[in-house]
Amino acid sequence: MTIPTQLVLSALLADPTRELYGLEIGQEVGLPSGTVHPILARLEGVGWLESHWEEIDPRDMGRPARRYYRLTGAGAVAAREALAQAYRPSRVPRAIPVVGEQ
Amino acid sequence: MSGTAPSLPGSPQPRSTATGPLSVHDRRRLQPPRLAKAAIAAAAWQLPPAHRSRYRLEFYGELYGMSRGRQVRYAVALFVHSWSLAMALKEPDPAQGRTHVRKDVRCLLGIHSYARRYAHDADETGSHSYLECRRCGKFKDLTRRPPRAWLGAGM
Fold it and tell me: Of A83, A34, A80, whose CA–CA distance to B63 is shortest?
């Protein structure tokens, strides 16, 4: 799993019930514009995320509706496991060479 | 879900949000610049046809609430990265069990690396054996074919 994907998942996992739109996610995790949507598309493709259009009247708000993303139930579980594995340190300690040992 | 648009410093503010629908003047003023719109349209055009409309509207919706200069920069960045989004959308669904096989360049040029394989009921004489490329899996049947008629016609 790439680091940007981990960042996006971390932002969504901070509050799994919270809904965020693409630009908002990018701003939260500090990713450059345009790099978030491919990640969201992949995560949505595997069923970790679900998205829906914001329910507003564009004429009243003066802007079009946004597309909001949130983790699915299974996606939140899978994301936590994936992040735990991604950050887990190696169990086997590195062998330290002993100077002078034969 | 947030109901109001978070606005950034320098972004154009509507004059009459509290009093109901925006005036035509306000709506025109809040419109993103043409360059941003064109970049969004170009970004969406690079996507698979089934996803174009959705992402065009999604990108367009995200432009609102920022300054005009930032709208242009954001739209251009979306256009630059739209190829990556297109690749993400074209990836097969892993839940359906399909895998993406990338062929080696040498195999694409017809330079295979064949290894002899034997079928389950094969013997060492070579019958029921075949050649299989180690890289791409292409196989060549080695069953002996009858000689062509024109080769032995005059003999």
Answer: A34
Give the span between the Cα atoms of B23 and B136, in whole angstroms: 63
| Choice between B133 and A20, residue whose per-residue pLDDT is larger | A20
Tokens of residue A37, six digits: 């949507």
Q: What is the pLDDT of residues A73-88, one digit of tens each?
A: 999 999 998 888 876 5
**In sequence order, which residues have a C-beta less than 8 Å from that of residue B112 and are 6 or more positions away?**
B106, B133, B135, B136, B138
Q: How many angstroms separate the CA of residue B45 from the nearest CA in chain A?
A: 15
Q: In the β-sheet with B129-133, what is the strand arrangement from edge to edge?
A: B114-118, B129-133, B139-141
- Residues from chain B that touch A39, judged by Cβ atoms under 8 A, are 88
Please give the ipTM for the structure prediction: 0.80
CA distance B60 to B49: 17
Q: Do B20 and A62 touch (CB under 8 A)?
A: no
User: What is the C-alpha separation between A20 and A66, in angstroms, rounded?
Assistant: 9
Residue of B nearest to A67 (CA): B58
Mind listing the pLDDT tens digit for each residue in A3-29?
A: 889 999 999 999 888 899 999 999 999
Query: Is the pTM higher than 0.80?
Result: no
